[in-house]
Amino acid sequence: MGKNKLMRFAQMETFTNVIQPDLDEVLNKDYPLKGNWNSSFFKNNNPIVLELGCGKGEYTVGLSRKYPEKNFIGIDIKGARIWRGAKTALEDKLTNVGFLRTRIEHICSFFAPGEVSEIWITFPDPQMKKIRAKKRLTSSRFLPRYRQFLKKDGIIHLKTDNSLLYEYSHSLCEYNNLNILKSTNDLYKTESDENLLSIQTFYESQFLAQGIPIKYLRFTLHDGIINEPPDTDNK
Questions:
Q1: Are 154 and 117 in contact (CB under 8 A)?
Q2: How big is the CA angle at 225 (ends 164 and 51), to the nearest 5 degrees?
Q3: What is the pLDDT at residue 131?
Q4: What's the pTM value of the predicted model, to 2 decimals?
Q5: Spans of all domains in the chain
């Protein structure tokens, strides 16, 4: 492991805005912050918004600046990536943003029913191989987990450069009669809402510079069973 990574991991241990539980603290059990993020971590009653697979936390931090009336938690398993966003948030004294280092598979160990208002999934791995379709963060494997802690009518946002992932996610929503609030396969061409356009990650800027359109999907869940579309294996 490089010196920079070792330095970052050491610094992360001192960051007050980062939670890094051991596996045995969350495997088949609830983490102490579950149901207590507002009272114990943020010390307010503002709505909680998650970014899943947050990487360096650019979007999480950007959202926290834009919406000081909300609380934001960036979630990723890569500590060396989270370090950047967490350090920026501390340096800029952003008190409405935190980071959680864990696998998305364990997310239900951290949040109680109705504790989260929104979820952002920004430029996730599209999992191109057929056998990995259920590893997509918008798959029927993960959506029921999000439903366990999302408020009723809580919103899920997907932002991606990948056409396959966008089409797959849109098809899954349609197949399961989920409520699609907005969808576009070229966000910057069809959308004028600055709330959607004003925050860009480094990679998003690169995609746009290369002429790659950004896709966006916003939807809510229901209480029924969520199944994979029948053509999932072809995507």
A1: yes
A2: 50
A3: 55
A4: 0.94
A5: 1-103, 120-235
Mean pLDDT by 10 residues, the chain (235 residues): 78 94 94 98 98 95 97 95 96 98 97 98 83 85 97 96 95 97 94 82 90 96 92 57
Q: Note if 125 is an active site residue.
A: yes
| Overall CATH class of domain 120-235 | alpha beta
Instruction: Output the pLDDT for position 197.
Output: 81
Count CB neighbours of 84 within 10 A. 15
Please tell me the CATH code under which domain 1-103 is placed.
3.40.50.150
Residue 198 in tokens: 């004003």
Please, which residues have CB within 8 angstroms of residue 137's CB and are 6 or more apart in sequence?
52, 53, 104, 121, 124
Beta strand 179-184 with 215-220 is: antiparallel
Task: Specify the pLDDT at position 55.
Answer: 93
**Dihedral (CA of 182, 173, 147, 131) sign:** negative
pLDDT of residue 191: 81
Active-site choice (24, 30, 92, 125)? 125
